[in-house]
Every structure is written in C-alpha cells, then in structure tokens.
Specification:
Distance between the termini: 123 Å
Radius of gyration: 43 Å
Number of strands: 4
Strand order of the largest sheet: 1-2
InterPro entries: Phomopsin_biosynth_assoc
Keywords: Membrane, Transmembrane, Transmembrane helix
Shape: elongated
Structural class: mainly alpha
Amino acid sequence: MEKISPRNYKPVPGADNDEDSGDSDVTLTVRPRRRSVQQFLKRNLAAITITITWLLLILLLLVTALIATITLPPVRQAFSLEHPSVYSGSHHGGQRQCLPAAPRTTLSCGNSTQEAEALGCAYDPLSACWLHRECPHDFVKEFTQFNNGKPFVYYHDKEMTRQMKDYDEVGRNINGFYWTSYREHLVHCLYLLRRAHDVHMRGDRLDTMLADLEHTDHCTKMLANWLRRPDPALDELGTQGRTHCFMSCS
C-alpha cells in the first residue's frame, strides 16, 4: 500500500501592486470619502455658486470705489477721513495749519447795502468792504485806532469839501467811493497782510480780498514804494539784528 505523502502547499506570491489593488483596505476606505465629497458638491452646488458670485460682486464694488476715490475729486472728498473742522496741526501757536479738507459754504454779501444787511453782513473798515459777520474781522480795532485813536478822515470828493463823519457813512455813501490819505492806504495794507497771516494760521475763512494775489502784490508794492522815499528818520541807526539764528521749514 502506497504511502500517501502530504501535498506541498507553496505559498502563493502576492502581486507587486498589492497596495494599489482595488481589493486592498486602503482602497475600500478612500472610495467612500470621494463619494461623500462629490455628493456634498452636488447637493450644495447652487449655494456655493451664489456665495462665489456675491464674493466676486463685493470685490468688484471695492475695486470700483477705490478707482473712483483716486480719480474723482468729489468722491475723494466724500471718502476723506478728515472732518471739515479739524486741521493738520491742532493749535496755531507758531505752527502752520492747513485749510479744511472739505470746502465751506460761501458767505456772500450780495451787490448792495440792502442785500448785504439782509444777508448778515457789516461794513469792515479795514478792507473798506461789506463782509459777513461770520468772516474774519481781525485787526479792525488796530486799524481804526491807528491815527492817534481817531478814525482816518474820509471825503466824498477829491477837493475835500464834504467830509464823512464816521465809518458807517463811509460804508453807506451812495457814490460808492471815497477819498482819504496815503497813510490810511498804507495802514490798510499793513493790517490786511497781518489779517491774512492770522487767518491762515488758524485755518479760518479767506475773504475775497485776502485770497486775491493781485491785491497782495499791490499792497507789498505800495509799502515798498513809500519806503524808498527819502526820509532821514529811516536811515538812522536803530535796529539790531541777530545772526545766530537757525530755522527749519516744512
């Protein structure tokens, strides 16, 4: 009787790509995840599309607003972070201030005495014009008292036959003009230049005369011409200068 020998069962070698085979554990765990992501996208496709659309729309609006702020002056003023009443340099004790970022409403005095009074204006002796009460009236007192505490003398005519009694009559005279001394004219220029400086320092309103470069040139030339006149008192030694002075500008 033949002896039955046990079969030699050799182990079957595994495939080289067992890890990538479709029957591996890894494949079985990944496939459900991929299906879940796809299913999520399918279920929420509409909501995702709407969200992306809104984000693109908001981005477009921001870019448009930025371009408008840079290119259009009215929009640039609207987006300005400065308040109209706030100026760069909050005090004016020797510090220069800038004018307000936003333009102010013009305070007009019309074209007649009646219109000026109705609009809230008063005669300003220093500028010899009607000026709104809310406009700067600096150095009026200094101007009116410069002539030894008395008003300057004004006349209706060049022949000096009809004198005006006060500044109110000067401002209300129907001729629309007056005659006065050179001294009055020089003092007018002197204190108007000082008014312009103080108004600029505090960022206040500029009236028509202060903003007029031609008038400023006229006043400086007027003062220069009179200083060129021969006057022994002007050549007397009376001024001491200082050279140990170091400034800065900004």
